[in-house]
C-alpha cells in the first residue's frame, strides 16, 4: 500500500542564504505501483524553487528547506473472486474466495417450536441432574441414562407422528440449512455465478457451478437468510423477476455446455410487490416453465424447505422431484387458504391437512419421486448428515437420467407431469357438482327463515297432546345437529380446536384424582369463557347465535309443556268425580249453545257453584289462582269464526297498505337485523316505537274500530261469560 504525506522541517544550514526547496520521496509497497510512483516523482521534480529571506537581526541569513514525502493511499483489496496467491495444492474444502457466503461467526441460537415443549422439559431435567452430579460428586449415571432414553423415545414418538402444520413449522425453522449450506456440504468445488445480464443480481436466487465426484453440475437455488440481516438482504428467499431471469440464463448456459441441472427449492413464493409486477413477474415465471420443458440436460429438483406456488415451480419442472422428509410444497399457504375458506387464518391447521402439502402426500400421489430422510429433530439437528443424504439421492437420480438420450429425457419429463392427476373416459359428468366447502351466505338461513321454523316448532310443541311427540323430537334433534356443526366451525375459526382436542384427550385419561379433575374444570371454564367472548363480538357468528337462541327457546317450551302436563295430572287426581261430572255437563251445554239451543238457567247456577268448588280444590292443592281467561275463539260458531277471519284479513291489509305508504319497510328490515344481533338492545325498542308511531299517524282506524266493536258485541251475545270462564294456575292451564 502507498500513502502520501507532507513533511516540513530543517534539513541543513548554508553559509549565507540557504535555499528552501521541495523534495519528493516515494515508498512503494507493491511492485505494480512502480509506474505510478515514477509519474508522481517526475511531476514534483518540476516544482518551483522557493527562496526565503533570512530573519532580521541575525548575523547569518537562516533558511529552511521543506521536504515532501508522498505515499499513495489505496482502499483495501477484496478477496473476491480470487486472492492474489492461490494455493495450487487445494483439492477440496471450503473455498472462501469463490462466494460471498461465509460461515456464521456465532452458532445460531436454538429455537423451540410449540409442539417441542415436552422435549424441552426433559432436556431441563437432564441438565439439572448432570449439574447435581457435578456439584455433589455422586453417581447419577443410571438416572441420566434413563432420562436420555426417555428423551430419545419421546423424540422418536413425536417426529414419527407429525401433523401437516407441524411439518410446515419445521420447514420454516429459522435454523434449517439453506440452499448454500447444502451446496457447500455436497460439492468439492463451487463457484457462484451472478447477474441476469439485464441490470441486476437478485440475492434471493443463487446460481453457480459445483463438482460432485469429479462431475460438474449447474446448481440453482432459492436462498433464505440465517439471521435477520441476511433475511433482509436475501428478501426472505422471495425472488424478483431478475432472479427468475438469472436462473433462466444459467439453465440455458448449462444446456449449451451439457451440464446437468440441480435446483434447490426453498421459498414462500415469488415477491409480489408493485415493482416486481411492473417488471413482469408472471411473464418471468411463465417463461421459465416453458423453457425448462425444452432443456436437453437432466434436471433434478430437491425441495429442502417450503415450496410456495409458482415461485417454487419456476425452477421445479424436473425429471426427478425429491423432497426432504419435513419439507412442504403447496399452491397456497395454509394461512392464506384458511383466510379464504374459513375467513380466519387461525384455521391454518385444518387447511394444511386439506391441502395435502407434505412430502408423504406428494409421494403418495406420484408428484414427488422420492423422500429424502432427515434426522430426528429436523434437518437443523444434523445439517451435514442431511446434506449427505441429499447428495446420495441426487447421485442416484443422475445415474439413472444420464443413461437416457435427449429424446428419452424430454419425453420422460413430459410424461412425469402428464401423469399427475387423473381423468375418466366414457363416464357421464354431472351437470352440477356439489363441493363440500364453506356454505355461501346465499344458502344460509336468514333471520326470517329461522323465525318461521321456530314458529312452526312452537306450534307443534304446544299442540302436541304429549310432550314427547316423534315429529317434534326429530325436528329438535336436527336442530341440535346443526348447532353442533356450527359450534365446531366456530371453534376452528377461533383457533380453539387444538385446545378443545387437548382437553378431550386429558378427560379421556382422567381417573378419580380430584385435584386433576379440578384442574380440568378450570381449563374447561377458561376455554368456554374465551369461546363466549369471541361469540359475543358484534356481527360475528350470526347464524350460530340465531340457532342457539332457537334451541334455547325450544328447550324452554318443552320444559313448560312437561310441567303443564304434570300439573294437569295432579289437578285431575285431586278433583272429585262430582265436579268432573258437572264440568262435562257444562261442556255439553256449551256445545249445544254454539248450535243455537236456548240457555238453561239452572245449568248456569250449577256452573257458578262448580266454579267455586273447583277454586277451593285448587287452593287445597297449594295452587294460587292468578286469573281467569276466556275460551278460545275456535269454540265459537262457524259463522262467527268466518267473520273474525275476514276482519283480521282486512286489518292486516290496511296495516300493509299503511306501511307501503309511510315507507316503513326499511325500518322493519333494520329492526329484524337488530333483533338477530340482540333482541334486548335499546335500539330495538326505539325502532319498535318509531314503527308503531308511523303506523298510527297514517292509519285511519275509525271504520276498523266500528267493525271490531260490532264483532265483539256479537260474540258477547252468543256466549255467556260464566260458562266460558276457565281457571288458570301459575305454572300452567287446566
From TrEMBL:
SUPFAM superfamilies: ClpP/crotonase
Pfam families noted in UniProt: ACCA
Gene Ontology cellular component annotations, sorted alphabetically: acetyl-CoA carboxylase complex
Keywords: ATP-binding, Fatty acid biosynthesis, Fatty acid metabolism, Lipid biosynthesis, Lipid metabolism, Nucleotide-binding
An annotated Gene Ontology molecular function: carboxyl- or carbamoyltransferase activity
Occurrences of domain CoA carboxyltransferase C-terminal (ranges): 146-400
Reactions this protein catalyses: N(6)-carboxybiotinyl-L-lysyl-[protein] + acetyl-CoA = N(6)-biotinyl-L-lysyl-[protein] + malonyl-CoA
GO biological process, one term: fatty acid biosynthetic process
Keyword Ligase: no
Gene3D superfamilies: 2-enoyl-CoA Hydratase, Chain A, domain 1 (3.90.226.10)
This protein's record includes keyword Lipid biosynthesis: yes
Enzyme Commission identifier(s): 2.1.3.15
PANTHER family (UniProt xref): ACETYL-COA CARBOXYTRANSFERASE (PTHR42853:SF1), ACETYL-COENZYME A CARBOXYLASE CARBOXYL TRANSFERASE SUBUNIT ALPHA (PTHR42853)
Classification via NCBIfam families: accA (TIGR00513), AccA_sub (NF041504), PRK05724.1 (NF004344)
Name the record gives this protein: acetyl-CoA carboxytransferase
UniProt organism field: Hibiscus trionum
